[in-house]
Records
---
Amino acid sequence: MKKIHRVLALLLAALMAIGLMTTAFAATDSAPTIDPGKKASLNIYKYDITMASKDGAWDAESYVSTGLHDDAVIDKLAKYAVQGVEFTYLRVADIAMNNEVVDGQRQVGVLYGFDGADDVLSAIGVTAADAHKSENGKNYFTSDMLNNKLTAALTANATTVKNELEAAVKNGGVAMSETDATGHTSSNMEQGLYLVVETRVPENVTSTCNPFFVSLPMTTIDGAAWNYDVTVYPKNQTGSPTLDKTVREAKNSAGKNNGSLTDIQKPSCDPPKTSNHQGRDFRPSLGGCPAVCRNRGGLMPAG
């Protein structure tokens, strides 16, 4: 029975493995619409997953990401909270519902409209030719396109891409308060697509989490409603740096690693997990780190 539950969890995780970006809807008459006047928020919880896994308190395959606050996860990992981690976010695109007929079939979904953030798109290899459509000088991309490009870029050259994306968020982005004693930090934000980068880590964190996209709002796991208050649980590796880890070189006076990234061999960090742990499913919308809450992105046939 335990093995069956594990298989079901993996199947659900696979369904969610399309990112912290928005899901598509199956029917035009039932697709929920976004309330443009509603505020959104991002909550991040940081835990020492290295130690939690070693202690048997955390199983990367035991949760399915939903983007929702999960007391069970927080209670289970409370003793592994990591304090002093700083994340910086940059709003890179608008979020828009899209309704169109393709090959005689109506499709409903979500697109992300960029009219700037050229440095971010360039860093992950996205060009105007990759746009699903263009209107009024703005290029609209699907979540699949953005997630796949980010994953490919980080896989090809994690060091360069991380450095470029970190530079991008520091140029106009907003630094969140450092995670507190419970490993938590949060920020109220307007709706849109955000790039989130881990910009400062404590001394014992030996690899930074890969940059990731978060859609605010994002859909619930069943695609029936919008979640405006998204929760993610990114992972880092802790302990002593070794030659197979991506580490920060410089240290500032506060004892935090805050220098450039040196990818000696391969990145070893696992990405954000969101509400129900997404584990290693999310290697991608953000690249090396699994992102916990992945929505299904792109377009789906209606009906």
---
Amino acid sequence: MSFSDAPISFPGLFGDWQFTVPSKALNIGNGIYWYGVLIAAGLLIALWFCMKRAPRYGLTEDDVIDTVLWAIPFAIVGARVYYVLFYLDQFRLADGSIDWAETYRIWDGGLAIYGGIIGGFLFGGLACKWRGVPVLPMFDLAAMGFLIGQGCGRWGNFFNQEAFGCNTTLPWGMYSEATRDYLLSSVVTAPKGTVIDPNLPVHPTFLYESIWCFVGLFLLVKYIKKRKFAGDIALRYLIWYGAGRFWIEALRTDSLLLVPSIGLRVSQVVAAVAVVGGVIAEVILTKRYKDKPLMVKLALNSENRTLAAKAKKADPAFRLEEEELLASSPRKLFVERTEAYNKRVKEELSAQQQ
């Protein structure tokens, strides 16, 4: 896959003014592309976000790091495997055999977000099981991390001048020689009967998805205190992202068509399954966990209760930071976290009295 540094314009907003955005951030070796830089930046921001919010889910920062170290590599592998499987013809040689050497060249492009989501959640979940970390709370936290990563990463498509849509007359329609050359090629996918004019602006669908992801993140953050069960946030992520991806995919010209006559794409089917499955699971689990507590506060032992009372008497403004754990957590985890919590509290109270 080749990337273009052709000048970009937004005729509806800025008339004939054009500007160029390089696909490479640094021209070293095969090149360090802005696509990779933005994905890496999104991952780091997502990791920071998840680590800071981990206690709200009964998790620790170490839990997050341990899981991410497993999830990220397999998410990348999953994204590549998904892409190769659905675009296998791109990797065939003239005799019909597969050029396996090309299948792992991710620096030439070709990552599918659905594969990344599947790989990340699957192997992240296995890592949680192995490490004794609650799986569903981690999924809730990871869902918001995915939205951050996806929201940032989509701007890599802008630098690569890819993942755009069909023609539009909206003011923010974009145009470049790269979009024109692609629309003139034979790989364009569009519903039967749709007329594509290579000389007209196109939908910046990467922008739509980036905005959709950040709006979803905002809504989920607002919903955190109202969540009803472990996995609630993750399900709402699937519903929100699936709904957005369904309509955005309908605009794109590079998606694999499943039913060409109506323009139904493979990604739209996956999105629809995510939405329908998420809604069904949300309804069932909301009823099942109605009026049941989601989180339980860890208890202080008698010694710490006495020390806390003395500290409160000496300083009425004193407040002890509380910790919570998922109500459905195994007893062993409750014992371990309660012991660690009381140890930390004792050290804090003893230091305060000195």
---
Amino acid sequence: MSKTEKLFTVAGTAKNPNGTVKARFANDLVARIKILNKAGCTDINLIELPKAMTKLEALQHLTQVGITEGDAGFAVANKLAEKAKVAKKGEVKVKAVKAPGKTAEAVASAAVKTAAKTKAVKATVPADAVESTNA
């Protein structure tokens, strides 16, 4: 988790009054059921998770538990695909490339020469920036 993600202890599905089925997340099972009933939701299917989980983890758990049939399964699969896409979007591929032109030794040598010209005795070059010729 690169940034702080909210954790949930309850997850499942519920059908809205307009007929759409959505994945639902909460931290209090009883309170969430009351809220969904008051809002007119039907087919409420919420479960307590074995531990606090992110939405992505909770959706994966719902899939493993077997909420994969009908509209509820479709809602879970769609939300899982959405969350997986967002999670993958945060990943960055890094490829190390050697800088063109000067080598680390040439840069260090130039720094020492510049320091000598300005009568500065101190030239700081990180140890890992200089390539060793002793192999």
